[in-house]
Amino acid sequence: MILEPFAKDGHITLYDHDGIAPEDGESITIGIKQIQMEQDTAKTIQQPPSTHLLDFNRVSHPLIEIITLPHIHHASTAAACVRKIQSILKTVNVVTTGMEMGGLRADVNVSVRERQRLPEAGPGKSYYGVTGLGQRTEIKNLSSFKAVEDAIIAERDRQIDVLEAGGVIEGETRGWTLGSTETRKLRGKEGEIDYRYMPDPDLEPVIIGEVGVGGTFCCFCAHIGIAGHHSTSSRMLTNVTRRYHKHACPIV
Q: Which of 81, 101, 119, 243 lies in the 20 to 30 Å Cα band around 15?
């Protein structure tokens, strides 16, 4: 589905009443790269000091991933974005439970950069047309709005400390435990694209018809905030309410 997503090139607008950071003013528009279907994977459960358990109960269950662009600069705005997404998904009956019951999870990518970037530092990283980014790390499976905000703050501060000490940020996947004050390394990433997509011969194509699009669109009309172009239709999905970098880019 990464090559043939359900929708792409959309956006969501958050307002001050959504709980965005004061620095973002009255509103902020966040781009949405695409919405795609994936299969769930096993869950790792750590039992210190050295035991790791694998939970395969949800393996191969389908899930929908909403990928936003690195347009978010404050942790509270990232949390507000996830909150608004959950509100929309509940309204159109995509999810029946919230983050607290496992109906939604957020992965956040965090990177930092100097406000006045020196020429010798180079142009930085880029992602889908957004340039000048720092090396990002990904924090997986955040299960509450507070966890999104706290994890981004902790990872932002960690990266700043590393860079100010002359170190280098490594591309890696990190974890977060509720009540913690720092993120922890789970594994390194082999490259910027650390996935190996391949077709599954046992899965037939999923086609979303006009009836499904139209029914969902009617529910959208009660809200304000998202616009996206549906892959199989010229219809613009507008007037909808709705998840990460110091550039924070949430993936819900």
A: 101
Total domains, the chain: 1
* SS3 (DSSP) at 104: coil
Which residues have a Cβ under 8 Å from the Cβ of 6 and sit 6 or more positions away?
Answer: 34, 35, 36, 37, 64, 208, 230, 231
What tens digit of pLDDT does each residue of 137-149 get? Answer: 999 989 899 999 9
Residue 2 inside a domain? The answer is no
> 144 is in which domain, residue-wise?
7-251
Evaluate whether residue 157 is within a structural domain: yes
Which residues have a Cβ under 8 Å from the Cβ of 252 and sit 6 or more positions away?
Answer: 65, 66, 82, 85, 104, 105, 106, 107, 243
Burial class of residue 231 (count of CB atoms within 10 Å of its CB; 0-12, 13-18, 19+): middle
Quote the pTM value: 0.79
Let me know if residue 123 belongs to a domain.
yes
What does the radius of gyration of the chain's CA atoms come to, in whole angstroms? Answer: 18
Retrieve residue 44's tokens: 């790792």
End-to-end CA distance of the chain: 16
